[in-house]
Amino acid sequence: MAAHPEAVTNVFGPLLGGEDLMDSEGQQDALVPHYINLMGETVPWLLGLLAVCALAAMQSTGAAYMSTAGGMLTRDVLKRYLIPNANHSVQKLCGRLGVAFIVGLIADLTFGSLLGEQALRLVVMTFILQRFRARLRFFPLSQQALAIGALLLNDRILTGAIHLILGIQTLPLAFWLAPLLGMLLWPMVYLLLDALRLGNWRKR
To answer: How sure is the predictor about 11, in pLDDT bands with cuts at 50, 70 and 90?
Structure first.
C-alpha cells in the first residue's frame, strides 16, 4: 500500500488499516474475498449487484453443464448399455430425468438434507411436467394455477411420506402452505413471464 498509494481507492483505503494484502498469508487468494467483505460494509448495493451477476454467471454455466450431462447420460449410458433401441423421445425423457436426479443430489449435498430426497422429488416433478406439459400450456390461467397447486401438493405429500417412513422430524405447518402460496402466485408469475416473452414491456 505504501509503495503504490494510487492503487488504493478512496472507499477502501481507510478500511485497510495499513495492511498490505500481498504480505499476508493468503496473498492473491485473499484479495477478492477481502474486497467483497469491504464492499458489504461500505457499498452494500454494489455487493448485491455483484451477487446477482455471479448468480447469472453460475446459471449460464450450470445450463451448459446440465445440457452436457443430459447428452452423456443418454448417448453414453442409456443408448450404449441400457436401451440400445431407444428412440428420441425416450432419450430426451431419460436425459431430463437424469439431469433432475443429479441436480437433486447436488442440492442434498449443498443443504445437508437427506441424501436422495431432493433427487427423488425433482425426478417425480420432472416426470409429471414432461408428461402433461403439452396439455398444461393450453389450460386457462385458473386451471394452470390449480395444476401448479396440485403439483406442489404432490411434492409435499411425497416429502411427508419419506419423513414418515424414515421417522424423521415432523414437517412444520408452513411447509404444507407452499402449494397454496404457489397456486396464488402463479397468475402473476405467468403474466410477467408472458409479457417478457412477447416484449410487451418495451411497448409500455
So the answer is: very low
